[in-house]
Amino acid sequence: MSPEEPQTEIARLIAEIERHNRLYYDQAEPEISDAEYDALFRRLESLEAEYPLFADPNSPTRRVGGSPSEGFEQVRHPVPMLSIDDLFEIPADELDRREARTGRRPLKERELVEFYSRLQKGLGRERVPVTIEPKIDGVAVSLVYRGGRLDYAATRGDGRTGDVITANVRTIRSVPLSLPESAGAPDTLEIRGEIFMTGAGFAKLNEERDEAGLATFANPRNATAGTLKMLDSREVGKRPLDFIAHGMGLVEGGEIATITDFHALLDRIGIRKNEPLVLAETLEEVLAAVRRLDEVRHDLPHATDGAVIKVIDREAQEQLGYTSRAPRWAAAYKYPPEQKETTLLDITVQVGRTGKLTPVAELAPVFVSGTTVRRATLHNESFIHERGIGIGDVVLIQKAGEIIPEVIRVVSKKEGGEPYSLSARLGGVCPVCAGPIECRETVSGSKAESRGVTTHFCVNFECAAQVASRIRQFVSRKALDIEGIGSIVAEKLVERELIRSPLDLFEIPGGTLAALNLGTEENPRIFGEKNAAKIVRTRERAAKEMPLSRWLFAMGISQVGESAARELARLHRNFGELARSGILAELRTLKTGESKEKNPLLAPYEIASEVGPVAAASVLDFFQSPAGLAVLDRLAALGIDPQSDHYAPIPAENAAGPGKALAGKTFVITGTLSAARDVIAARILEAGGKVSGSVSKNTDYLLAGEGGGSKRDKALSLGVAVIDEAELDALLSGASAPPEES
After folding, report:
1. What would the pLDDT profile of 22-41 be if each residue is shown by its tens digit?
2. Per-residue model confidence as pLDDT tens digits over 229-274
C-alpha cells in the first residue's frame, strides 16, 4: 500500500462498520450477516495493528455495543459491561490453500490455541481451569438486585452506560422479581445474561406478523432487540422473551470466588444458567469441548453462534486483566455459519390468514445445521428481484440464527431463466379462492436506508384461507363484539366446514353451534348450549344495533383501521353510500402531499388524515370488486343495513351544543393512561371530538400518559397542545383549553 491507502481504507472501514453497528444495535435491521460483519471487523483490526499511526482512538474496535436509545432513562454500570473478543475458525477453503502452499494442514482452531496459550503465559502455569458454554445469540442485559429485590435492569449500551428497561424485563417470567431469603444471595448482586427468543417462539411471532401484514424479523436476535426498545411494556409482555444468566458484575455484602460458586448461587435463587456447561483444565480438553458443543448446539431451543471460554477463578481473572473493550480471561470462539448449495426446484405461493401471498422456495433436499431443508421463505417479490432468484438456479442457503432456512444468494443462474413475477405466475388471482390480488408498495428500513417493498394480498373477504383470521377480527370487541368465539372456536368452525365466510355466523343454527366439537374424535369437547346461546344473542345484537363504523372495522378492509372506520362512518350514512362515494372518488385522485382544500368538491368537508388517497382507493376497490359486491348482496339478503351513529360530513353540522364540548377538536392518544385507550376515545367521541392515530398539524390535542415517546416529541415540534387526563376532564366539562405550551 502507498502511505495514503491504509489511512483511507481504515477510515472507510470505520464508517462502514459504524453504519452496520447502527443498523444492528440501534435499529435491529441488519443488512449483512454476522460472518460478513466479522470479516470487516477483522480487516480493520489487522490494518490498525499494521499501521498504528492511522488508528483512530474512537474506532469501533475499541468500543462496545451501540449507543443508548432515546426514550429510555440511562444508568451507568457499576462495573463496565464489556464485550468479549472473538476467535474465529479458519474456513475449509483457506485450510486447503494453506495446505497446498506449505504441505501442512493447520489446525482450524488455531486462534483458540493461541488464546489458551496466552492464558497459560499470563498466569504462569500449564493447567488453566476454564468453562465452555454456548454463546447465546441474544441481547446482553444486567439485572441488579439489592436486598433480594430487582432494583433495575439495563442493556449493555456502550459498555459504560445502558438503557433502563426494568418495566420490559419484569414481563419476562424467567426473571425473578425477588430472590428467596434462604438462597444466601449477596446484599447487592449484579447478574448478567442474555435475553433471547426460542426458535419456536420466534417462528410463531414472525408468522403472526406476516399474517398481520407487518415486516418480519430477520432472526431471533433482531426480534429481541426490537422488542426491548418498545416503550409499552404491555406489548413487550406479548412477545416470547426468555432469559439465561452467564456472568456477574458488582457483588457487595457477600463473596463469590469462582464461576462454579456463581452457578451454584443461580441454582439456589432460581435463575437459569447457561447450559451445557463443561469444565476443562487442558488445551486438549478445551478443543474437545468446543468441538462437541458444535455438534449438540443445534438441539438447543435457542440460537447460538459460538462457544464462550472463561477462566473460572476470579483472582486469576483479575490477574489477567482487561483491554479497553474486553477481558483478557474470556473469549468467544465463533462457529462459521453452515452454508450449503442446492437447486431451487420451484417457487410456490402460500396464502396467509390475512391474505398475504408469500413465495416459498421449493429446494432439492439438503442437510444444514442439523436438519434436512426442503423449503425456505422468499418473503415477497422484492426479495426475489433484489437477489436475482429464479427457478432452476443453484442457490446458497443457511439458517438465520441457526433456525430459519433462508436463501443467501444465487450461485449460478439457469440458462434461459426468466425473471419471476408472482402475479403472472398465478394469473392475477389467489391460488386458494381465485379472488383478485392486490399489489401493495410499502417502505422498509430506517429513514436513511429506506427501500420499496412489493407484497401481494388476496382481498377477497370470503377467501377460504383467511376465514379463521377474518372471523377473529369480525367478532372482536372493537368490531362486532360477538361473544364466545375465540381462536379455537373460529378454527374449528372452518376446519369442520361449518362456515366459509364470517357472514355465515349469522345463519349457522344454534343447535349446530352447541354440538360443535372443539376436541378430537377420540377426546371430544363439546361447545355446549350455554356458549352457543351467547353467540346467538350477541350476533343478533350486532345485526340490529352495531353502527356502521364497527361493521367497517369488522370487514378488515386494507388501510381501514379503527380510526379510519370512524371517519368513514362520519362521512357516510351506510354501506350503499360508501360503495358509490363521491368523496372517496375525489380523494383517490389527490396526489401525494396535495391538499384536500384545493379540490372544490372536497373543500366543504373536514376529513381526517386517516382517510387519504390510499385508503379511499382501497375502500372503493373493495366495494366495487366482485368480492365486495357479493358482500353487499349477502348483507341485503340477511337484512343487515348498518347505519352511521355520528354522521356529520360538514363541520357546521357538528356544531357545539349540549354534550358536544369537544366538537370539531381532533385528539391523539398515547402512553399509559388510567383506562384503556378505546374507553377514553369513546368519551372524546361522545363529546363530539375526533380521535386520530397519528399527530399532524391538524391535531388539536395530544392526550399523553406515561411513556408518550415520539408522539409527544412530534406534538411539541408542531405546537400541538399536550394534555393529561385531568386537563381532558376539564375540557369535557366545558372549561377553557389549556395553554399551547402545556
Report:
1. 676 555 566 777 777 878 88
2. 888 888 888 899 999 999 999 999 988 888 889 999 999 998 999 9
CATH class of segment(s) 340-430: mainly beta
Which CATH superfamily, name and number, covers 464-545? 5' to 3' exonuclease, C-terminal subdomain (1.10.150.20)
Give me the helices (H) in 240-345, please. 259-269, 283-296, 314-320
Q: Predicted confidence band at 656 (pLDDT cuts at 50, 70, 90)?
A: very low
Q: How far apart are CA 360 and CA 375, in angstroms?
A: 7
Q: What is the reported pLDDT for 356? A: 83
CB atoms within 10 A of CB 514: 17
Q: Which residues contact 115 (CB under 8 A, 6 or more apart)?
A: 87, 309, 331
Q: Annotated catalytic residue: which of 108, 121, 135, 340?
A: 135
The pLDDT value recorded for residue 688 is 77
Range from 43-52, 78-87, 182-191 carrying the lowest mean pLDDT: 43-52
Is there a contact between 691 and 669 (Cβ–Cβ < 8 Å)? Answer: yes
135 is catalytic: yes
- Hey, where are the domains in the chain? 4-62, 130-334, 340-430, 464-545, 548-652, 655-732
- Cell 476470579, residue located: 314
Query: What CATH code would you report for 655-732?
Result: 3.40.50.10190
Among residues 689, 682, 681, which one has the least CA distance to residue 651? 689
pTM over 0.90, yes/no: no
**C-alpha span between 236 and 220 (Å, rounded):** 15
**Alpha helices for 639-732 (secondary structure H):** 677-686, 710-718, 725-732
> What CATH code would you report for 4-62?
1.10.287.610
Amino acid at 254: G
CA distance 571 to 65: 51
Give the strands of the sheet with 130-136, arranged side by side: 85-88, 330-334, 304-311, 130-136, 278-280
